[in-house]
Design goal:
By secondary structure, the chain is an alpha/beta fold. The chain has one domain: Metal-dependent hydrolases (TIM Barrel), CATH 3.20.20. It contains 14 helices and 10 strands. The strands form 3 sheets. Strands 1-2-3-4 form a 4-stranded parallel beta sheet. Strands 5-6-9-10 form a 4-stranded parallel beta sheet. α5 runs parallel beside α6 and α7 runs parallel beside α8. The longest helix is centred in the middle third of the chain and has 19 residues. The two termini are about 15 Å apart. Bound molecules: zinc ion (ZN). Zinc ion binds next to loops.
């Protein structure tokens, strides 16, 4: 059986040892002054989203060369393979890596080359979903154009970054162009914003919802009555790319027990289990499966197998 990861950020998944080695090679000072690189990147007890996001400044700073990107992509796929995954969807905001010495074509080429090396060694298939940064309209428009132009080098399009006040419909013309070009769309929604944001994502062409956990707010848990958007998601079995630990670390839920994933599974939603940012959350998919078991989800492997059936890699 195939097992898939659908929601994992390339810049959130570097190995700490690789980050340190690349920082040394590139004389990247901020990381060279750090005593314990793993605990520096581990933002599991971060007090704010800002603190959590600050760690990405240092990973993206190292993703500025062809060889670095190729290695980071290869290692991400290798780490997924070592956790039993054979379909890996990775996502990244590619303009972070474009500079005078690295064109967008180089960026996509380097990442795909790393993925290909892992496929040749282990058989794992990987593909890249491009993220536009929703707090920067120009960025979303540019990444949308890149997605259309290089649609043969990628598997999907998404918007990431702060969700509140940046609903998908702000970028509806970009989503239309991307969809018309035949590129698959998934959208981060229902994480930092409410059910309305999920509805908005569906209206803008999302085939899957990144996180989407706040769909629980559209359900009366006393009698399981669902609102309009929850019914739409449930009846059409639209996959929700759920990342439990990430939600705890960004302070959405206080504890694993209060996370809605079990209720959503029990209600028959199409739930995909994911990692989001392995480095900052100090996690991997084996740990996420163990968390599932701890909170009463019997066969979390099933969630990974189901994910494989609606992967954009198919
Ligand atoms: Zn994410």
């Amino acid at each position: 059986m195939n097992k898939a990861i659908l929601h994992d950020h390339l810049d959130g998944g570097l190995r700490p040892s690789t980050a340190l080695e690349l920082a040394k090679n590139d004389s990247y000072k901020p990381l060279l002054e750090i005593e314990n690189i793993s605990s520096f990147f581990d933002r599991s007890s971060s007090s704010s989203l800002e603190d959590y996001l600050e760690a990405f400044i240092h990973t993206t700073a190292l993703m500025n060369k062809y060889d670095n990107l190729e290695r980071i992509a290869f290692e991400a796929a290798e780490d997924m393979h070592n956790c039993g995954i054979n379909l890996y969807e990775s996502r990244y905001a590619p303009l972070y890596s474009v500079n005078n010495n690295l064109s967008i074509k180089d960026v996509l080429g380097a990442i795909n080359s790393g993925f290909k090396q892992a496929e040749n060694l282990y058989g794992i298939k990987s593909g890249l979903i491009l993220c536009g940064m929703r707090n920067d309209k120009k960025n979303v428009e540019s990444v949308g154009e890149i997605a259309v132009k290089y649609r043969d080098l990628i598997i999907g399009f998404d918007i990431a970054g702060p969700e509140l006040n940046f609903r998908p419909s702000l970028f509806s013309s970009t989503f239309k162009k991307v969809k018309n070009a035949g590129v698959n769309i998934t959208i981060h929604a229902g994480e930092g914003d409410s059910v309305e944001s999920i509805k908005d994502a569906l209206e803008n062409g999302a085939k899957r919802i990144g996180h989407g956990v706040r769909i629980i707010e559209d359900i009366n848990l006393e009698n399981n009555e669902m609102g309009e958007t929850a019914s739409l998601i449930h009846d059409n079995q639209i996959p929700l790319e759920i990342c439990i630990t990430s939600n705890i670390h960004t302070n959405m839920y206080k504890s694993y027990d209060s996370h809605p994933i079990k209720d959503l599974v029990d209600l028959g939603f199409n739930i995909s289990l994911n990692t989001d940012n392995r480095l900052m959350s100090n996690t991997d998919i084996v740990k996420e499966m163990n968390i599932c078991k701890d909170i009463g989800i019997k066969n979390p492997e099933n969630l990974l197998e189901m994910s494989a059936s609606y992967s954009f890699l198919n």
